[in-house]
Amino acid sequence: MRGLRLHLRLPRSRSGRIALALAIVYLAWGSAYLAVHVALGAFPPLLLSGLRNLVAGIGLFLYAAHGRRVWPTPVQVFNAGIVGTMLVGLSSGLLTFGMRSVGTGAAAVMVATVPLFATVISAVAGRPVAKGEWVAVALGLLGTVVLNQGSGSTAPASGTIVILCGALFWAGGSQLASRLALPSDLFMSTALQIGLGGAISTALAWLSGERVTHFGFLPAFAFLYLMLMATMAAYLAYGFLIRHTSPLVASSCMYVNPIVAVALGALMLGEPVTRWTVFATAAILSSVALSFWFDRRRAVR
């Protein structure tokens, strides 16, 4: 483990580490749509979400616990459990449940409301929100709606409400993660969050009767990808962003992920890229650029 730590050379500057964390989150969670599609060939939805988070949490915990002398306090463990329940158990669980009746494109548009919820929660919590930040949120939402233009999907009210509740829980969990006392070590904090949240999802899936009935190479490979990249690596990067950037920048992945998903769909599945895709990409990237600019202004004050 010590040798591994020595060979992991991260950028030294704050901006470099933020850029790396954003790249991991954007690519890992953007490609997770395709990986989930493949993994669902063998895993039921809630069990897939729970198992990958539970196993990833256990792996990160063993890594973080190696040679550790200072352990998190009971309060920190409790707080990590609360955040993990909101981010993994409730948010991911509700999203999975809602997608039983809502298409992927419509769900992506609804999940893109996370930055809006995050900004509103920050404003209610007392953090000043500039008018330009609301413009960035609006641009991002506009871009994701246009990205889904022409899909023709109609989401039932029940599924829509469930997914929007999942987006609200994600925004609330991110806000709590930036305010509650969590383990100082990022690996330990992430391990407890995704491990405890995954345990809750796995238990609910098992109690509801979900089981893996058959197995195959591609679903197994997709599961490993989801566990290693979309869970371990991405949650570590997201935890870093929550600690070192604003909620708007940290949640900007909700705007970029649909772009990555559309690009992979075009490359891997032959899905068409239209003028609406180009327009939406420009709007979304403008939203992210504004988010970075306001975050930098706040950091230098």
Automatic annotation (TrEMBL):
Q: Which domain of life is it from?
A: Bacteria
Q: Does Nucleus show up as a keyword for this record?
A: no
Sequence ranges assigned to domain EamA in this UniProt record: 19-148, 158-292
Q: Where in the cell is it found?
A: Membrane
Q: Where would you say this protein principally sits, based on its record? A: membrane
Membrane topology designation = Multi-pass membrane protein
Q: Does the keyword Transmembrane helix apply?
A: yes
Extract the InterPro entries matched here: AA-Vitamin_Transporters, EamA_dom, EmrE-like
- Kindly list the GO CC terms recorded for this protein: membrane
Assigned keywords, A-Z? Membrane, Transmembrane, Transmembrane helix
The portions of this protein that span the membrane are: 20-40, 46-65, 77-99, 105-125, 132-149, 155-174, 186-208, 220-241, 248-270, 276-294
Concerning its family, UniProt says:
Belongs to the EamA transporter family.
Q: Which PANTHER family match?
A: EAMA DOMAIN-CONTAINING PROTEIN, INNER MEMBRANE TRANSPORTER
According to UniProt, the name of this protein is EamA family transporter
